[in-house]
Amino acid sequence: MTESVIVKNVYKKYKMHTKPTEKLLDLILPGGYGEDFYALQDISFTAKQGDVVGLVGVNGSGKSTLSNIIAGVIPPTTGTVETVGQTSIIAISSGLNNQLTGRENIELKCLMLGFKKKEIQAMEPEIIEFADIGKFIDQPVKKYSSGMKSRLGFAISVTVNPDILIVDEALSVGDQVFAQKSKNKMFEFKEKGKTIFFVSHSMGQIKEFCETAIWLEYGEIKQYGPVPEVIPQYEKFLKKYKSMSNEEQKKFREKVMQKQRGLATI
Ligand SMILES: Nc1ncnc2c1ncn2[C@@H]1O[C@H](COP(=O)(O)OP(=O)(O)OP(=O)(O)O)[C@@H](O)[C@H]1O
């Protein structure tokens, strides 16, 4: 099958500010203050057309950062992301403008994806019906609950019929009815052979949807392979991680983060 997404040696560097003054000074002289910190380190993998890839990892391991980089919402610090023969990548719950209304966001997002005004007018009712947020569609997104944002993001994403879909925790917010509707849509996409990246903390959902999984551990790929190989290992780790005291979890995180600060060679 054709390669769909090729990620090569991707690093994402952020500044970690430990003092409020550092943050302020860094705004004046960007990059000059604070400690370098790697949210992603040397990420390389290939996904083929039709792959449904689960992204797993504990909080702060880099799942959203990687999703946003694949989606082109944020650039990598170094490294490349190539998408082969595809037209659009959508990441749910990213890219909504808080100042604009839901309806304006639909128009803006579709325009940015290259749709013509007439095409957008034709898609708009379907998006609004799927989102099902009533009169809120004409309210600024800043007034939305996280569930409403997710509904609108999901509705836009699936209606524009992308070749690559990135679903970041969309099923964890919102009610049962919407979650079921979203699930059905994702299965429909899967059946059509689209490439899907699915971020979730629910191993049940990962096992239900995905064939392959990427386990991120504080910015690095710990394991990438078939779900029946990766997820049991990750669950074993999670059990151990959850049984740690807060102090032990902190030490574990610090150990990995020391590596993130120190070992990157870019
Ligand atoms: N804009 C930013 N500036 C600085 N640090 C950031 C930024 N965005 C993310 N980070 C840091 O990068 C790391 C990875 O964050 P990310 O949101 O990708 O993790 P995640 O695996 O999606 O976490 P969660 O499961 O909690 O959603 C975290 O330590 C986070 O604090």
Automatic annotation (TrEMBL):
UniProt entry tagged with the keyword Iron? no
Residue span(s) of domain ABC transporter:
22-243
Q: Which GO terms describe its molecular function?
A: ATP binding
List the Gene3D superfamilies.
P-loop containing nucleotide triphosphate hydrolases
Does the keyword section mention Electron transport?
no
Q: Which InterPro entries match?
A: AAA+_ATPase (IPR003593), ABC_transporter-like_ATP-bd (IPR003439), ABC_transporter-like_CS (IPR017871), ABC_transpr_TagH-like (IPR015860), Bact_Polysacc_Export_ATP-bd (IPR050683), P-loop_NTPase (IPR027417)
The UniProt keyword set, sorted, is: ATP-binding, Nucleotide-binding, Translocase, Transport
Coiled coil, from the record: none
Instruction: Give the PROSITE patterns listed for this entry.
Output: ABC_TRANSPORTER_1 (PS00211), ABC_TRANSPORTER_2 (PS50893)
Q: Give the family per the record.
A: Belongs to the ABC transporter superfamily.
NCBIfam families (UniProt xref): PRK13546.1
Protein name, please? Teichoic acids export ABC transporter ATP-binding subunit TagH
